[in-house]
């Protein structure tokens, strides 16, 4: 069986489980379950702390896993990302009191508090900065107020929490993270079970981004219409019983669907319909 690590809690857990369910895999009904066997799909799921997943996958104990890019890099584990999943996006940045520093080059001799000590240590080394790193679990905003550090490094969404603590974001982002599928760096590239899993997950990503659009249009306007709806390869065009009309079917980006429908209508298309895509293979 393919052995897959899945986050058991936190911001990664629910979206990961939802995506796996859309991909046709069984998911646990009880949060206390630590292992779930999906015999029909020949997969065994292990529900683990998100921070531990890269370690298990990197050691070869598990074949692949779902975790955050930030957690992967912070672990230092010999694992690599093989697919971006498009959820749990975040930005990792430095912050401090106004006037303390302008960018990472000013951090020499200072102390930085963070929950991602491995990631920050590597970033400082990459920039040739000699600074101390203090590892703290959980929120780090109070580290400066309590005199533990002059700088903090943390996940930033809107920056409101930092501003409320009297801090400002400085320098360029350390990292832009999101949920990713990972495997051990020494794992074979041609494992058929892993390839099948990736195809399923990619199918979910595509199904979420596209809708199927159907419409009828006069033959003389087909070229202009299909220019609006080119599809992934090319649209399906079928003659209708009513002479001079054809039916067109094509995948279009869901974010553009309403605009495309308006433009098709102005072009003379009628019976314009959109339907959701639940699964696909490309």
From TrEMBL:
State the compartments where it is located: Cytoplasm
The EC category is: transferase
Entries under Gene3D superfamilies matching the protein: 3.30.70.120, Periplasmic binding protein-like II
Matching entries from PROSITE patterns are given as: ATP_P_PHORIBOSYLTR
Give the catalytic activity: 1-(5-phospho-beta-D-ribosyl)-ATP + diphosphate = 5-phospho-alpha-D-ribose 1-diphosphate + ATP
Concerning CDD domains, the annotation shows: PBP2_HisGL1
Keyword Cell membrane among record annotations: no
Pfam families, A to Z: HisG (PF01634), HisG_C (PF08029)
InterPro entries cross-referenced by the UniProt entry: ATP-PRT_HisG_long, ATP_PRibTrfase_cat, ATP_PRibTrfase_CS, ATP_PRibTrfase_HisG, HisG_C, N-reg_PII-like_a/b, N-reg_PII/ATP_PRibTrfase_C
Nucleotide-binding among the record's keywords? yes
Q: Which residues form the ATP phosphoribosyltransferase catalytic domain?
A: 49-203
Q: Which Enzyme Commission number(s) are listed?
A: 2.4.2.17
Q: Which SUPFAM superfamilies match?
A: GlnB-like (SSF54913), Periplasmic binding protein-like II (SSF53850)
This protein's UniProt keywords: Amino-acid biosynthesis, ATP-binding, Cytoplasm, Glycosyltransferase, Histidine biosynthesis, Magnesium, Metal-binding, Nucleotide-binding, Transferase
Spell out the molecular function terms from Gene Ontology: ATP phosphoribosyltransferase activity
- Domain Histidine biosynthesis HisG C-terminal: residue ranges: 207-278
* Entry's family note: Belongs to the ATP phosphoribosyltransferase family. Long subfamily.
Q: What is this protein called?
A: ATP phosphoribosyltransferase
Species source reads Streptomyces yunnanensis
Question: Corresponding gene?
Answer: hisG
């Amino acid at each position: 069986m393919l052995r897959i690590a899945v986050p058991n809690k936190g911001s990664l857990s629910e979206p990961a489980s939802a995506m796996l369910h859309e991909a046709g895999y069984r998911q646990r009904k009880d949060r206390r379950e630590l292992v779930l066997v999906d015999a029909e799909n020949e997969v065994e799921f292990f529900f683990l702390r998100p921070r531990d997943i890269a370690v298990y996958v990197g050691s070869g104990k598990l074949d692949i896993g779902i975790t955050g890019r930030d957690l992967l890099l912070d672990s230092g584990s010999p694992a690599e990302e093989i697919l971006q999943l498009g959820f749990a996006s975040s930005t990792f940045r430095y912050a401090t009191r106004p006037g303390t520093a302008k960018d990472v080059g000013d951090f020499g001799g200072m102390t930085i508090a963070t929950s991602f000590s491995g990631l920050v240590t590597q970033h400082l080394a990459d920039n040739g900065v000699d600074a101390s790193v203090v590892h703290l679990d959980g929120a780090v905003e109070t580290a400066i107020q309590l005199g533990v550090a002059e700088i903090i490094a943390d996940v930033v969404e809107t920056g409101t929490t930092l501003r409320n603590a009297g801090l400002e974001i400085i320098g360029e982002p350390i990292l832009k993270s999101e949920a990713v599928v990972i495997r051990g760096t020494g794992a074979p590239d041609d494992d058929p079970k892993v390839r099948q899993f990736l195809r399923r997950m990619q199918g979910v990503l595509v199904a979420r981004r596209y809708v199927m659009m159907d419409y009828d249009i006069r033959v003389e306007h087909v070229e202009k219409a299909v220019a609006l709806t080119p599809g992934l390869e090319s649209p399906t065009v079928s003659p209708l019983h009513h002479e001079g009309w054809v039916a067109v079917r094509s995948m279009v980006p869901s974010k553009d669907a309403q605009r495309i429908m308006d433009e098709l209508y102005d072009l003379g298309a009628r019976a314009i319909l959109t339907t959701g895509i639940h699964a696909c293979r490309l």
